[in-house]
Design goal:
alpha/beta, Rossmann fold, 2 domains, eight-stranded mixed beta sheet, five-stranded parallel beta sheet, elongated, binds cytidine-5'-triphosphate
């Protein structure tokens, strides 16, 4: 943390006293810390305490006649590498999520363009309230990182989730934040995710249960590791990661056009979308009625294979495909690797319970163009995404 500029933003919770110790720990590791406080945080710890320890004036008032001329909050925000909100109350999280700025802390957050990490602390009922969880989900989609609170005895006497995360954990997360690999900087990565919808009539479509979680995890990890990311996604319930280019689509044909549009200017294609193999031969203009149609036959035609189309125009790109199989996992994956001229295939058995479609976890086998087989243990899709990104060779990294 040597010479890193951190804004420690303290909001009005009992755990505010722990921010005093956190300030000391951050400074001990060489960080330059500027403290900001919410309107009521001073009820718990005085600005003077933070001022004395940090050796800097504390930003805690927006309407301070003495300093208002120099736009203090903007200056503080411009220079910092990280804004660390500890503790974050439900109210502060709510303001941050909804763009309200009525005190020093919320003002600073709105003006700040860099990375933000938040460690909430509140009563268990507040923590579990859907409004608070919605605000957290919203901030996560804006790229804010959360250090989850712990289970334990709370200041109100209750036992449950909501206690400020241990300071060692927060320090670990801050260290990780600064040590994060930026090994994909300068690289352009195109990712596809989710299912496709192939319409049959105005209200029906053919699809599959893909959640998009794998592709979104690849996009998020690639962005965090410094890559420029384009995410082409079929319909999902997920929020796209912050800071990427997002291209939504519905059908396999639309996804194919978008891949064709971006592929040549990218260094890597990760094709994790579960693309529909068939589409209706004829799209009915009106809703198909069931009367007299009990034995209706649907005529389907094959969609274009997006990976095959990409391999035809491939120049230097590193291309990753997926193989979702219910039988003969390795043979089928190898066949796809060869046929689609892939550099890497990620194979998984979708018939295994608790992994694959919809799940946060998966158990996959990686096969490279040298046809070496690597069986990975069961792990989160984020971990799989990181391992997959590790496989990108330096030639694709433009080194
Ligand atoms: N894929 C694609 N275009 C399609 C279908 C699939 O680009 N029209 C891609 C998928 O995104 C995946 C890989 O091809 O990366 C393998 O997809 P999968 O559904 O396992 O195999 P298919 O090639 O469709 O073959 P089959 O369904 O017969 O197993």
């Amino acid at each position: 943390m040597e010479n890193k500029k951190i804004v420690l933003a303290v909001s009005a919770g009992i755990a505010a006293y722990k921010a005093v110790e956190l300030l000391r720990l951050l400074m001990k590791e060489g960080a330059e810390v500027q403290v900001a406080m919410s309107a009521n945080a001073g009820q718990f710890v005085t600005p003077l305490t933070f001022e004395a320890l940090s050796g800097k004036p504390v930003y805690h008032q927006i309407f301070d006649a003495k300093n208002s001329g120099d736009m203090e909050h903007i200056r503080v925000a411009e220079n910092a590498d990280l804004m660390l909100v500890v503790p974050a109350t439900a109210s502060t999280i709510g303001k941050m999520a909804n763009g309200l700025a009525d005190d020093a802390l919320s003002n600073l957050y709105l003006a700040f363009k860099g990375s933000v990490m938040v460690a909430p602390a509140m009563n268990d009922g507040m923590w579990q309230n859907p409004a608070v969880q919605d605000n957290i989900a919203k901030l996560t989609s804006h790229g804010v990182e959360f250090v989850e609170p712990e289970q334990g005895e709370l200041a109100c006497g209750a036992i449950g989730p909501g206690r400020l995360s241990d300071l060692d954990t927060i320090m670990g997360r801050v260290r990780n934040h600064f040590n994060q690999l930026q090994d994909l900087q300068g690289m352009r990565i195109l990712v596809t995710a989710g299912p496709t919808h192939e319409p049959l009539d105005p209200v029906r479509y053919l699809s599959n249960p893909s959640s998009g979680k794998m592709g979104y995890a690849v996009a998020e990890r690639a962005k965090a590791r410094g890559a420029e990311v384009v995410l082409i996604s079929g319909p999902t319930h997920l929020n796209p990661p912050a800071g990427i280019k997002f291209e939504p689509c519905k059908t396999a044909a639309e996804m194919n056009s978008l891949v064709q549009e971006h592929f040549l200017e990218c260094d890597v294609l990760v094709m994790s979308a579960a693309v529909g193999d068939f589409t209706a031969a004829k799209l009915e203009k009106e809703k198909i009625k069931k009367q007299g149609e009990e034995g209706r036959t649907l005529k389907l035609v094959a969609t274009k294979d997006i990976l095959m189309e990409a391999s035809k125009i491939k120049t230097r790109q590193f291309v990753v495909g997926f193989a979702a199989e219910t039988q003969n996992l390795i043979e089928s994956a190898l066949e796809k690797l060869r046929k689609k001229k892939l550099d890497l295939i990620v194979a998984n058995d979708i018939s295994a319970p608790g992994i694959g479609f919809q799940s946060d976890n998966n158990q996959v086998t990686l096969i490279g163009s040298d046809e070496k087989i690597e069986n990975l243990p069961r792990m989160t899709k984020k971990e799989i995404a990181n391992i997959l990104l590790d496989k990108i060779p330096s030639r694709a990294r433009g080194e």
